[in-house]
Amino acid sequence: EKGGFDHFMLKEIFEQPRSIADSMRGRVQADSGTMQLGGLRDYLDKLAASERIVIIGCGTSWHAGLVAEYIFEELARIPVEVEYASEFRYRNPIIKEGDIVIAISQSGETADTLAAIELAKSKGATIFGVCNVVGSSIARATDAGAYTHAGPEIGVASTKAFTAQVTVLTLMALAAAKRKGTISESLFRLLLAELESIPAKVEKVLQAADKIKEIAYIFTYARNFIYLGRGLNFPVALEGALKLKEISYIHAEGYPAAEMKHGPIALIDEDMPVVVIATKDSSYEKIVSNIQEVKARKGRVIAITTEGDTHLPSLVDFTIEIPKVHEVLVPLVSVIPLQLLAYDIAVMRGRNVDQPRNLAKSVTVE
Ligand code: M6R
């Protein structure tokens, strides 16, 4: 049932070209420049007209929400707030009529997310769900939504669910932007075409698995890790750090790279591995200077770079290349090497990768 892989997690990492494609199937027609999300049809006007979106989720689903915040604001120009469901539900959140709440959950059974939905509903919000399990409690509690079609995710560490969530949330943002008229026809078509190219690009990163394993070997006994990214790669840094801590039990922290100078830079020395997502996009120059700050303090840098970048390899200790991707879609590809790195380190440390200690696949307790 693991399809020849040693663990479900590795199988699920390698399934991503397919699960991303499945999450777009029947929804995206790049040739004709069209798309539709059946589960949103009756609510698309409401989404496009909303003055505020609140996204709720936990763990990896919350990270997908942070990615969606950038995409919704950039394309649809709707202000977005992303909240941990567990915090949202214990405050007295301000929800107005017309507000949209998007609940993200792989399992559809997370207790905090479900309770947050009920609270938002009681205050008059319209609830959209992004779930992977059809008929789950959260899917049933929402007014509308779009399923991710990642297929069953068994490994406790979420991998293919994350990329499926980001895919579906991107489609929601594109649909809202199109309806609102905040996206040009050419960018809309370009992003649909770019989306269709993602599975092949993910496949290409997976082919670098052996190189990633060699890097993992070198850092197997590190005690701490820092992950840095800017813009859309900031939530990817958080996600990379979460993967590493939950399955290898190594302490890891993700930061927006520019925050380093406000404290975490004090941690950098020759024993501190720093994973930097430094793809060629609008914040490239800035992240290069962040890397220089880490190198000046003898930190060891593993950089995720864009194919063909000839500058960074001379600056850092290790590079892992990913294909060029449109900036809006970069998390779908830049997260893949981080999933593999965490997996390899955990395996080398002899951890129970699919069922890490103290964790359950769905957290149905408060
Ligand atoms: O099923 P959900 O998406 O609601 O689960 C949310 C979190 O419990 C989950 O993402 C958790 O953080 C994972 N173990 C992360 O890999």
From TrEMBL:
Which keywords annotate this record? Aminotransferase, Cytoplasm, Glutamine amidotransferase, Repeat, Transferase
Molecular functions (GO terms) = glutamine-fructose-6-phosphate transaminase (isomerizing) activity
Q: What class of enzyme is it?
A: transferase
Reaction equations catalysed: D-fructose 6-phosphate + L-glutamine = D-glucosamine 6-phosphate + L-glutamate
Q: What is its EC number?
A: 2.6.1.16
The protein's job, in short, is: Catalyzes the first step in hexosamine metabolism, converting fructose-6P into glucosamine-6P using glutamine as a nitrogen source.
- Please report the name of this protein according to its UniProt entry: Glutamine--fructose-6-phosphate aminotransferase [isomerizing]
What species is given as this protein's source? Spirosoma liriopis
Q: Which gene encodes it?
A: glmS
Residues of the whole record sequence present:
247 to 612 of 612
